[in-house]
């Protein structure tokens, strides 16, 4: 049953150089997660504990999952991904059972990185009136915290969680020894969008006239995922026009198509 809801990758195919516009966040994740896994002796010598949990927060499609995968790629750690929404179960005890399975699997595969996407699904602040469903979600979260509190003895397991809804999180999960390293992953700025465009056109046959700087300027507010769809869409226009090279005009057509489509389409393709 456990395999259905968890994604396990020995070595995810994402590298830091595939991630654009968030160099500072990469540096922080490397320090908080990669270095403790790669050089535990450094922390032992100085006599400090590395952070047990790292929380990545920011808008959808900005590279949070990529970051977690890139760390696993750089270390020998197995990448184990679970969506917070998957942990929300109907039957009593089912959610906590999944959390236990998750950590058990991580211990078997040690070193391992557990990545919990949409942590808000089990860790949002709730209203006063608790329905039984809420109580079950609460229990699942308590189980997660209990597993994290018993971490150190368990060795080389790091946990990274991600959310788009930082403001709604239950502050209990941010206490020391839990998700005590917070890293904001924002929407990319002009320079970031240029980098992301370059990354997603690396494998594309792009004409010299393509102007990344002006495309980046036009796409203010786009996430990395949306910039990726722009590049793919531009490629589609080249194919439709029977060309092997993608031109500036293709990018402009793609941009107009995306802008004119219902905005929900853009989100869906992310
Ligand atoms: P969500 O919060 O919706 O889970 P996320 O922040 O985890 O989103 P990712 O899954 O990392 O987003 O990104 C989705 C896709 O968008 C990636 O596979 C990648 O192709 C592209 N992408 C997003 N951000 C970046 C970035 N900073 N650099 C390059 N590509 C990016």
Automatic annotation (TrEMBL):
Q: Keywords in alphabetical order, please.
A: ATP-binding, Chaperone, Coiled coil, Cytoplasm, Nucleotide-binding, Proteasome
Cite the AAA+ ATPase domain residue spans from the record.
50-189
Gene Ontology annotations of biological process type: proteasomal protein catabolic process; protein unfolding
User: What are the subcellular locations of this protein?
Assistant: Cytoplasm
In its keyword annotation, does this UniProt entry include Coiled coil?
A: yes
Q: Which GO terms describe its molecular function?
A: ATP binding; ATP hydrolysis activity
What Gene Ontology terms describe where this protein resides (cellular component)?
cytoplasm; proteasome-activating nucleotidase complex
Domain-related comment:
Consists of three main regions, an N-terminal coiled-coil domain that may assist in substrate recognition, an interdomain involved in PAN hexamerization, and a C-terminal ATPase domain of the AAA type.
Q: Give the quaternary structure.
A: Homohexamer. The hexameric complex has a two-ring architecture resembling a top hat that caps the 20S proteasome core at one or both ends. Upon ATP-binding, the C-terminus of PAN interacts with the alpha-rings of the proteasome core by binding to the intersubunit pockets.
Instruction: Tell me its family.
Output: Belongs to the AAA ATPase family.
**Protein name listed in UniProt:** Proteasome-activating nucleotidase
Q: What would be the name of the gene that encodes this protein?
A: pan
């Amino acid at each position: 049953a456990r395999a259905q809801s968890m994604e396990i990758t020995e070595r995810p195919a994402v590298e830091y150089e595939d991630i654009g516009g968030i160099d500072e966040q990469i540096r922080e994740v490397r320090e908080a997660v990669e270095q403790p896994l790669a050089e535990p002796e450094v922390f032992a010598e100085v006599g400090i504990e590395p952070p047990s949990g790292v929380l990545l927060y920011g808008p959808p499609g900005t590279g949070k999952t990529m970051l977690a995968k890139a760390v696993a790629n750089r270390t020998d750690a197995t990448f184990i991904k679970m969506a917070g929404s998957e942990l929300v179960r109907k039957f009593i005890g089912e959610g906590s059972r999944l959390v236990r399975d998750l950590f058990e699997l991580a211990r078997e595969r040690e070193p391992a990185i557990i990545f919990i996407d949409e942590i808000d699904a089990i860790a949002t602040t709730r209203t006063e009136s608790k329905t039984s469903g809420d109580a079950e979600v609460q229990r699942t979260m308590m189980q997660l915290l209990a597993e994290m509190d018993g971490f150190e003895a368990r060795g080389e397991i790091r946990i990274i969680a991600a959310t788009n809804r930082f403001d709604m999180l239950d502050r209990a999960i941010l206490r020391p020894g839990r998700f005590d390293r917070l890293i904001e992953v924002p929407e990319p700025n002009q320079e970031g969008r240029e980098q992301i465009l370059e990354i997603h056109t690396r494998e594309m046959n792009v004409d010299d006239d393509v102007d990344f700087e002006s495309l980046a300027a036009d796409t203010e507010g786009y996430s990395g995922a949306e910039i990726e769809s722009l590049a793919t869409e531009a490629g589609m226009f080249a194919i439709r026009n029977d060309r092997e090279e993608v031109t500036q005009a293709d990018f402009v057509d793609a941009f107009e198509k995306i802008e004119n489509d219902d905005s929900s389409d853009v989100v869906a393709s992310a």
